[in-house]
Specification:
three-stranded antiparallel sheet, alpha/beta, tRNA_ribo_trans-like, 377 residues, 43% helix, eight-stranded parallel beta barrel, TIM Barrel
């Protein structure tokens, strides 16, 4: 159940109560696609850096090690030793981004595995069954992720099919949650708004899926090539037509600036591979913009990544040491930078929540973006 605690403008401060604990929102979900954060960061580390929600991937886990394997081992929480909420995305995005050959039918999608080429079928029911086997806290509905831009006629038909798929997802999840041998019988379902960059299709779809009274709603199909301005415009158009008593999740977004802009427009949940991916390539986030620790100027720099940061990395290691690790190709370099970046994102969300609670979010947002922009000059 979602409870709206406070609003400042359109920015929302809330909490989502789940079977695996309470999530304070706005929140950033740390992406562990294969039940692990890339960069050798463990579930124990996630607790230490303030992670509230871990995100894993239905498609990838269904292929390796297999959702039935995870079910037999007690579900994803037990499997990866994580006792807080987990969101699993439906696999829809991966079906469309990884499968070179695919055939979309009303019943679902036929495609080939990106690992070994074997033929696979996934539809709404299959996605729900896999996610039920994983026993995540929140399951995402199976949808078609449309390329931007796409022809209007195709987008319209795709969105209508996604709505029909969502109805099937809801029916299947209700069935699975009623079964006595289901691991998590309180699994939540979030629906996904699609519609490309067409405002009217987005709005109509938001209205249609709102009628299904789901546990939460996501805005999908963004951060896939459109400009930031287009993304912000779509958020502004869609959010008012989604239930205001349910959490709103912007999928796959994004940069710290994107997050602040989306919070201002009413978004509660975020996820993105950016902090972990950048960290693995020596790029770290700070209060004053990004640094590339491979730069020669850090060779003798004995200061922490960020003096204002309280993460375990900044408390214990210098820029010079981490640069040395990268140069020596030591795995610890990636681990330290990923930990720092994820702490930065989780701490950013904590500061955002405090700012909304304290009625100073607009000022906070302006100050942060100004700091980051000045660092680029």
């Amino acid at each position: 159940m979602y409870k709206l605690l406070k609003k400042q403008g359109n920015a929302r401060r809330g909490q989502l109560t789940t079977v695996h604990g309470v999530v304070q929102t706005p929140v950033f979900m740390n992406v562990g696609t294969l039940a692990a954060i890339k960069g050798a960061v463990s579930s124990v580390d996630l607790r230490n850096i303030g992670c509230q929600v871990e995100l894993s991937n239905t498609y990838h886990l269904s292929l390796r090690p297999g959702d039935e394997v995870i079910r037999k081992l007690g579900g994803l929480h037990k499997f990866m030793n994580w006792d807080r909420p987990i969101l699993t995305d439906s696999g829809g995005f991966q079906v469309f981004s990884l499968a070179k050959i695919r055939k979309i039918k009303e019943e679902g999608v036929y495609f080939s595995s990106h690992i070994d080429g074997r033929k696979i079928f996934m539809g709404p029911e299959e996605s729900m069954r896999i996610q039920s086997n994983l026993a995540s806290t929140i399951a995402m509905a199976f949808d078609e992720c449309i390329e931007n831009p796409s022809p209007r006629e195709y987008v319209q038909k795709s969105v209508e099919r996604t709505t029909r798929w969502l109805e099937r997802c809801k029916a299947e999840m209700n069935r699975l949650n009623s079964m006595p041998d289901t691991i998590n019988r309180k699994q939540m379902l979030f629906g996904i708004n699609q519609g490309g960059t067409y405002d009217d299709i987005r709005i109509e779809h938001a209205k249609a899926i709102s009628d299904l009274n789901l546990d939460g709603y996501a805005i999908g199909g963004l951060a896939v090539g459109e400009t930031s301005e287009e993304m912000y415009r779509i958020i502004e158009k869609v959010v008012p037509h989604l239930p205001q008593d349910k959490p709103i999740y912007l999928m796959g977004v994004g940069t710290p600036t994107n997050i602040l802009e989306a919070v201002e427009r009413g978004v509660d949940f975020f996820d993105c591979v950016l902090p972990a991916r950048n960290g693995r390539h020596s790029h770290v986030f700070t209060d004053h913009g990004q640094l590339n620790l491979l730069n020669a100027k850090y060779e003798l720099d004995d200061s922490p990544i960020d003096y204002n940061c309280s993460c375990p990395v900044c408390k214990n290691y210098s820029r010079a040491y981490i640069r040395h690790l990268f140069k020596a190709k030591e795995m610890l370099a990636m681990r330290l930078c990923v930990m720092h970046n994820l702490y930065f994102y989780n701490n950013l969300m904590s500061e955002i929540r405090d700012a909304i609670d304290g009625n100073y979010f607009p000022k906070y947002k302006e100050q942060k973006i100004q700091q980051w922009n000045e660092s680029k000059k």
